[in-house]
């Protein structure tokens, strides 16, 4: 194993022989794109015209007054096409696929958000698209499956194992190995074998580049701290990259604390005590696994944070002490969500609300001439079923029951 694709002791590319050629091809296409200023221009033009970039950095005046500490700014990745930062990665990979001359993309998805983003990109670029999804997730995420199919994707329900995300990952890999000459596997976050972590992080760096310019324009100096939720780590790495070279800016990643770090029902890999180093899914990182290397069940109210691994780049930045990690519980997330909606008229995704929790804990300790940035990775509209249920909204319950009756005829 060469040291290429390692970040400290993390990362690498543990892949079967049959994939070597396609990984080399991907690596070359990525390096060529990085070396070509024209590629980044083409990418930002695509993101401007199709995804509404640059996304704003909103000053949260009411929240800032409420906490009476730092000035709170929110980076609005929720305003991207399809409602989250996922568009940044998926559209970037679409451009690379076109350059490599491939005509088919596949992806796996749990909650369905990455599937929707990939299906959108495939429709725009004219690629064939197959999305693998655990059968249980297909049932739970019908609205997303509906949109993927309407955009022309084939959604394959995976019936192996627990019929969820990890089974869908295995099936997508099987497809890729079989159709490697024609097909690109669109990985959804900064995980997996090299060059995916670095490549996904590179596309997502558009968030941090914009945020840095925007905070300097509106606040006149760099922020004291930047907060982002951490599932696989792509939105966090995206915004952090704007500030990595400035040690005085604190970078804070917030994981899913679920029912609490001692409950066994969470997805805290970098700040809890249940994760350990391992190699799985083609790369080395901190995994939530038992002593035999069996992956543990994870839990979060936010489907996008509910994952056993984490970006090897973040594992490394933790070793270096450059990024600090915290966890937010499901209950804290609901409270932060309610406050944000009420005071700013903004609905963060359940995932993003984790970052808000930690920012709200720290903002009161800072001075009014200091600023913080919260990366709002996505919008909460998709979470209406979960949020309305958690808040035990009585009219929502009636609405769901009435809809059910209507369909039952
Ligand atoms: C998918 C998703 C995440 C988690 O992914 P990262 O790679 O950790 O960014 C976070 N927020 C939203 C809104 C998502 O859809």
Question: What's the structural blueprint in terms of helices and strands?
Answer:
Layout: E1 6-7, E2 10-11, H1 20-35, H2 37-51, E3 57-59, H3 61-67, E4 71-76, H4 86-100, E5 104-108, H5 113-125, E6 128-134, H6 135-140, H7 142-150, E7 154-158, H8 165-178, E8 183-185, H9 196-219, E9 225-229, H10 234-240, E10 250-258, E11 275-280, E12 283-288, H11 312-319, E13 323-329, H12 330-344, H13 350-362, E14 371-376, H14 384-390, H15 394-408
Parallel strand pairs: 4-14, 5-6, 5-8, 6-7, 9-10, 9-14, 10-13
Antiparallel strand pairs: 1-2, 3-4, 11-12
Helix pairs in contact: 2-4, 4-5, 4-9, 5-7, 9-10, 12-13
The protein binds pyridoxal-5'-phosphate.
Pyridoxal-5'-phosphate binds at residues 84, 86, 113, 189, 229-235, 304-305, 349, 351-352, 377-378.
Report on the structure:
- The chain contains 15 helices and 14 strands.
- The protein is an alpha/beta fold and 409 residues long.
- It folds into 2 domains: 154 residues, Rossmann fold (3-Layer(aba) Sandwich); 217 residues, Rossmann fold (3-Layer(aba) Sandwich), CATH 3.40.50.
- Strands 3-4-14-9-10-13 form a 6-stranded mixed β-sheet, with helices on both faces.
- A hairpin with a 2-residue loop joins strand 11 and strand 12.
- Helix 5 packs parallel to helix 7.
- The protein is globular, with a radius of gyration of 20 Å.
- 53% of the residues are buried.
- The model has no long low-confidence stretch (mean pLDDT 96).
- Bound molecules: pyridoxal-5'-phosphate (PLP).
- The site of pyridoxal-5'-phosphate has 18 residues, from helix 10 and helix 13.
